[in-house]
Fold this sequence. Notes:
Layout: H1 4-11, H2 15-22, H3 30-42, H4 49-56, E1 61-65, H5 77-92, E2 96-100, H6 110-116, E3 121-125, H7 132-138, E4 144-147, E5 155-159, H8 161-174, E6 180-184, H9 189-204, E7 214-216, H10 222-233, E8 241-243, H11 247-259, E9 269-271, E10 288-290, H12 293-309, E11 318-321, E12 324-326, H13 335-346
Parallel strand pairs: 1-2, 1-3, 3-4, 4-5, 5-11, 6-7, 6-8, 8-9
Antiparallel strand pairs: 10-12
Amino acid sequence: MVSLKDVSIRCGVSVATVSKALNDKKDIGMATKEYIHRIAKEMNYFPDHSARALKTKHTYNIGVLYVGEAQNGMMHDYFTSVLYSFKQKFESCGYAITFINKHNGKNMSSYELCKYHGVEGIIIACIQHYDSDILEVINGDIPVVTIDGVFNNRTAVLSDNKEGMQELVTFLYEMGHKQIAFIHGNDSVITQSRVKSFYETMEKLGLAVPDKFVKQGSYHDPITTAKLTNELLATERQLTCIIFPDDFSSLGGIRTIRENGFRIPEDISVVGYDGIVLSQMLTPQLTTLQQDTKTIGTYAAEKLIMLIENPGNSKIERIIVKGKVLKGTSVKNLNTKQCFEMSTKNLICCS
């Protein structure tokens, strides 16, 4: 294995100079840095993280707890996008990431595994926030930042699910929809926020919500969504729109609607949630609430690094990141017919 000393001999400089150059210190000239980096690359030099940890007392290792209620967290496009953005931020700051999975045969709790791997900080995303295993981590002595989960003693970065749902429902109302159904995901902090906002917004707009119009489904689960969509289509009262748990789940609902002989959006409108790339590739293009995954992931990384590197100056925060409605073509404008009828009476073309 090539050492710093080997690189220093080849470059004709001290070990200290090589170390400073490879760590991008400001007291080394740019030409010298570039020369040392080039030689180190030619010699296939890689930093010895164990030695670095012993010297600096830092492991530069971040633990990620990432398991969803349905054990499908790693497959969910929203959390995958969030993880990608904070992975980029961590790696740009010299940190490595270790995924923590207690079901790995070591018979350790998640907290014990974090200790075992020597992580300096932990990101918790897409998990069962009130599981005893997670609470052990939350109440431990390792810095933690949560994503879409709130604990009194930890910093959290949250997507604005309340305002997101409010904007979606308001948009539907403005498009003339009054009979709106909602298939939501598993019971969680995220779901509770969305469901509460759905009811509050509907009430504020003066719209009734029959009990049979709200059904509990599952995130990232097209099969369950398809089954519940069938139940909604069988209701006596005519629906005009269905809000699905997320964009991926909507695939099951969309297929079921078409199998029942209905057209989208001519006969019934559909709405997703998350704003994943797939949603904009569908025909018709899915109307959805796009969550700002890049900002969420970057903020989470920045806050955790601050907790690790400046523990005395860090405070517990709640950072809420807003999303935006992507107005696709899966929602019919029910005001158009009324507008056309009025215009023909007055011989005016209304667009």
